[in-house]
Amino acid sequence: MFGRTAEADPTAQPAGGAAPSAGGAYRLQLATSRSEAEAQALWKKVSHSQGLDGVSPQIERVDIGNFGTFYSLRIGPFPDKAESLKVCNALKRSGIDCSLAEQ
User: Mean pLDDT for the chain?
Assistant: First the structure.
């Protein structure tokens, strides 16, 4: 089938804004890119434009057999579902698609 390996980007630093609690169980799935560099570039764009203090990126390598390797960008954690959906709606208004991904 396919395998996943988590690779967080230790160099990405969130920008200022609302601070979710460290114990939140919700993350947002932002993109699945063909390269890790594309996923990192999206994180930089989002973190600078949305002010996501306390939110960290998680870039996960996903191998999908004959389809190849993809890089999934998730951000969080968020303290609750309502906060994660609030951020997701703000991202959608700025043209960035996202979906809720519980940890």
Answer: 81
**Count of structural domains within the chain:** 1
C-alpha angle 99/100/103, rounded to 5°? 135
Tell me the residue range of the domain where 60 lies. 3-102
For residue 37, give the CATH number of its domain. 3.30.70.1070
For residue range 27-40, what is the model confidence (pLDDT) as tens digits?
Answer: 999 989 999 999 99
3-class secondary structure per residue, the chain: CCEEEEECCCCCCCCCCCCCCCCCCEEEEEEEECCHHHHHHHHHHHHHHHCCCCCEEEEEEEEEHHHEEEEEEEEEEECCHHHHHHHHHHHHHCCCCCEEEEC
Q: In one letter, which amino acid is 2?
A: F
